[in-house]
Amino acid sequence: MAEQLIITNKEDKEKTYKELIPQIRSLVECEYDLIANLANISAVLKEAFNFFWVGFYLVKEEQLVLGPFQGTLACTRINYGKGVCGTAWKNEETVIVDDVNSFPGHIACSSLSLSEIVVPVFFEGKVVAVLDVDSDKYSTFDNIDSQYLNEICNLIFKM
Q: pTM for the complete prediction?
């Protein structure tokens, strides 16, 4: 695939995800470098949806360590079970937060972030990373985002 993103309809979130999936698959299927793939996935999601912040945290020992991302300066390390990212890692499930200020123990990397979705990335049955997506609007994320972001995360180690 050429390094050009094609989106024909940014008004319909589900259609946009459906257009992105084959493009992301094409990006990662021939590239075996994890960091390169995570960087491109972050860029695609940021460009397609204009999210405030999109990136990955990688599990290293008992912390999440900042990986490839698109957006403002970010927290570098997050402890297991802490904040939205650490909670998604600990519970091994996607977490959607409509208002980050109401999430107990939320870690505020930026006061501009108002809602968030975090999707765990699995390899051989273990969480090895999380995809963190932040919005500067309340209640941005829903089950459509969860479904397709999980599908995207499943592509990372399927190639």
A: 0.95
